[in-house]
Amino acid sequence: MPASAIVTGMVLSAMPVGDYDKRLVILTKELGKISAFAKGARRPNSALLACSQPFSFGEFTLFAGKSSYNITSAEISNYFSELREDIDSVYYGLYFCEFVDYITKENNDEKEILKLLYQTLRAVAKKTIELSLIRLVFEFKIMALSGVAPQVFECVKCQKKKDNYVFSVNHGGLLCEQCQAYDNASVKLSTSSIYTLQYIISRDVVNLYTFRVSKEVLDELKACVKRYLDHYLNHEFKSVELLH
């Protein structure tokens, strides 16, 4: 990377450093996840004050030092100010950013996850669908983008397409009626829940948040995704306490 570069990304978190500086974690289109210092960002008249907040999305001009990046300027195109007007929206936004921070890595191509985070925060800001559904869609989709998508188009064991399935966390997807004996802890799913899962896994990120589901479907899939995350991540997010 040259000494100076412009990257497009979103601030995932900001931590005070010293008397006036901040250390930002930014998910970028060009470099994946990076850490960068915003010197003087905590001063009231700093040009970096506004851009050094979580949810800030735009272009960041970086200077690459020997061991770290420093932000010299930023042009923010979306602050997601609508999120800050509602405490529940803020908590959900922080959860999504914390999840992305945990699951992404430096020097990885994370363009699709950056796109997912941006579209997810847009959905939260618009409030066109309920927050619990946004969270469910985000959790399944980010696991898929990270390479651990459940198999939701056929039976995991026999590879046959059937009408009735259960969801098996241990086997990583759907089991048909003949194969469900392989997992006594599986979750029975309605046809609508299966269609919803297939939509989430296969749909482009831009078109994800365009539907609603019944309470029955939401409850079934919430039970599935909780078990799925516990099994494949085994990580407690601090922001989950705020959601509860």
Brief overview, please?
The chain has 6 helices and 8 strands, in the order βββββαααβββααα. It is α+β, with helices and mostly antiparallel strands.
Q: Can you describe what's shown?
A:
- By secondary structure, this protein is α+β, with helices and mostly antiparallel strands.
- It has 2 domains: 4-78, OB fold (Dihydrolipoamide Acetyltransferase, E2P) (Beta Barrel), CATH 2.40.50; 83-243, Up-down Bundle (de novo design (two linked rop proteins)).
- Helix content is 34%, strand content 23%.
- The chain has 6 helices and 8 strands.
- The strands form 2 sheets. A 5-stranded mixed barrel has the order 1-2-3-5-4. A 3-stranded antiparallel sheet has the order 7-6-8, with helices on one face.
- A hairpin with a 4-residue loop joins β4 and β5 (69-78).
- α1 (87-103) packs antiparallel against α2, α1 packs parallel to α3 (131-145) and α2 packs antiparallel against α3 (131-145).
- The longest helix has 18 residues, at 215-232.
- The model has no long low-confidence stretch (mean pLDDT 94).
Q: In angstroms, what separates the terminal alpha carbons?
A: 42 Å
Helix tally equals: 6
Mean pLDDT, as a whole number? 94
Name given to the CATH homologous superfamily of the largest domain: Recombination protein O, C-terminal domain
Q: Strand order of the main beta sheet, please?
A: 1-2-3-5-4
Class by SSE composition: alpha+beta
- How many domains? 2
CATH class of the largest domain: Mainly Alpha
CATH topology of the largest domain: the name is de novo design (two linked rop proteins)
Shape: elongated
- Based on the coordinates given, report the CATH architecture of the largest domain: Up-down Bundle
Strand percentage:
15-25%
The whole-angstrom Rg is: 20 Å
Query: Main beta sheet, described?
Result: 5 strands, mixed, barrel
Show unreliable segments.
Answer: none
In percent, how helical is the residue content? 25-40%
Number of strands: 8
Helix/strand order, N-terminal first: EEEEEHHHEEEHHH
